[in-house]
Amino acid sequence: MLRWLIGGGREPQGLAEKSSVQTIGEEQIQNPYTELLVLKGHQDIVRFLVQIDDYRFASAGDDGIIFLWNAQTGEKLCELHGHTHKITAIAPFSSSDDTEEKTDLIITASADRTVIVWDCTSGRQVRKVSCFHSTVKCLTVLQRLNVWLSGGSDLCVWNRKLDLLCKTSHLTDAGISALVELPKNCVAAAVGKELIIFRLSASNNGSEGWNVLEVKRLVDHQDNISSLVSVNDLTFVTGSHVGELIVWDALDWTKQASECNFWDSSVHPDVQPEIKLSQSPNETSVQHLTSDEECVFAAVGKGIYVYNLQMKRVIACQRTAHDSSVLHIEKLPNRQLISCSEDGSVRIWELREKQQLPAEPVPTGFFNMWGFGRASKQANQAAKKMQENTPMYFLELVGDLIGHSSAVQMFLYFGELGLATCSADHLIILWKDGERESSLRSLALFKKLAQNGDLQLRL
């Protein structure tokens, strides 16, 4: 049973009647999140959650306010006011040097065309900049260089005190929608359909100045790039609004592999035919990408897909994982995935290996279909061997978290502290392991009783 610990939120509304979407029973044996804390404070859509340290996180959204929270207790630690329009990007930036202690900072950008650096301990503004010609849509911190980047109609490089080090010339009115760090002081910026590679370098004249130079433009995508993710120092991946997924070499920026036809597991459970996704933008758009270095996990339309980088193909999927578009997906340490959707749900999946079945002979062409040709036997043997050596996987639904009444924008995973989700219903929910929380309460009660007993003995 799901237990509500802090009430006051609106009751979750009934979701659309489920058809092809999987459902799960009430027991949900593998789902530990059976308690929840409802955190209230925002007055509009909450779009962003960012982790500050092991127990603190920040939330931001369309009301322009940033809240800092305790992930264990749900306590509101601080309320940051300074923006006059919605927040468009947020990033943590913890830094320290020889003369200063470690400082936990967050950087926020807003539709009011300002960027603010905040001190997470004191809640004060470190600095505010309002020299932008357009809204900053993305922020990226380069910890190795101790600088951070803002992307809008141009790319700006800043130090942590918000001193502008250098910037590009005006790119496009649409501007940069996403950034990802690459090796050798490079970054990849998504600008419409193009992927622009920039290189950062210190000035040669001995000053503290920096230069940012455009070194290459990649035009392989057929539609606007919607998601970027760095896999490791050798690889990064991009996704577009028409369902293209491209794997890139992070050192020379060449295309290593691509996937435009995601297979449909409902056609045949053991064979993976390439079936073109429908061309509806809502069905094909790659909303979010994440990776564990072995695989890339993609939120595509209403579905989630697992793309193996070594095999260069999709190895598992749920084409209809939710009733509406999947907005965010993350891989957990224990072969589990979490996804959230516009339908207001948060779902937990486990990647499991299928039991191998004897491979069926596979026809290899028009003539072989009618029994002509002599290559049929060899082709069938090769296909059978490939199937025997290729592990098959599937995604099983093991948890269904229903608490929000509107689109869940994203979430943060805090390990044993649980899961934080934010939504268009203005709420943040902390999902907790019910068994663990019950044990902690029992332990706290035992300690309190023991202390009271010692006090009585002293009296």
Automatic annotation (TrEMBL):
Domain of life assignment: Eukaryota
Pfam family membership, one: Beta-prop_WDR41
Ranges occupied by WD repeats: 39-79, 80-128, 319-359
Keyword Repeat: yes
InterPro entries: WD40/YVTN_repeat-like_dom_sf (IPR015943), WD40_PAC1 (IPR020472), WD40_repeat_CS (IPR019775), WD40_repeat_dom_sf (IPR036322), WD40_rpt (IPR001680), WDR41 (IPR040102)
PROSITE patterns to which the protein is assigned, alphabetical: WD_REPEATS_1 (PS00678), WD_REPEATS_2 (PS50082), WD_REPEATS_REGION (PS50294)
Annotated compartments: Cytoplasm
Signal peptide span: none
Keywords, ordered alphabetically: Autophagy, Cytoplasm, Repeat, WD repeat
Cellular component aspect of the GO annotation: lysosomal membrane
GO BP terms, alphabetized: autophagy; regulation of autophagy
Summary of subunit composition and partner proteins: Component of the C9orf72-SMCR8 complex, at least composed of C9orf72, SMCR8 and WDR41. The complex is formed of two protomers, each individually consisting of one molecule each of C9orf72, SMCR8 and WDR41. The protomers homodimerize via an interaction between C9orf72 (via C-terminus) and SMCR8 (via N-terminus). Within each protomer SMCR8 (via DENN domain) acts as a bridging protein between WDR41 (via C-terminus and N-terminus) and C9orf72 (via C-terminus). The C9orf72-SMCR8 complex associates with the ULK1/ATG1 kinase complex.
Function: Non-catalytic component of the C9orf72-SMCR8 complex, a complex that has guanine nucleotide exchange factor (GEF) activity and regulates autophagy. The C9orf72-SMCR8 complex promotes the exchange of GDP to GTP, converting inactive GDP-bound RAB8A and RAB39B into their active GTP-bound form, thereby promoting autophagosome maturation. As part of the C9orf72-SMCR8 complex, stimulates RAB8A and RAB11A GTPase activity in vitro, however WDR42 is shown not be an essential complex component for this function.
Name of the molecule in the record: WD repeat-containing protein 41
Taxonomic lineage: Eukaryota, Metazoa, Chordata, Craniata, Vertebrata
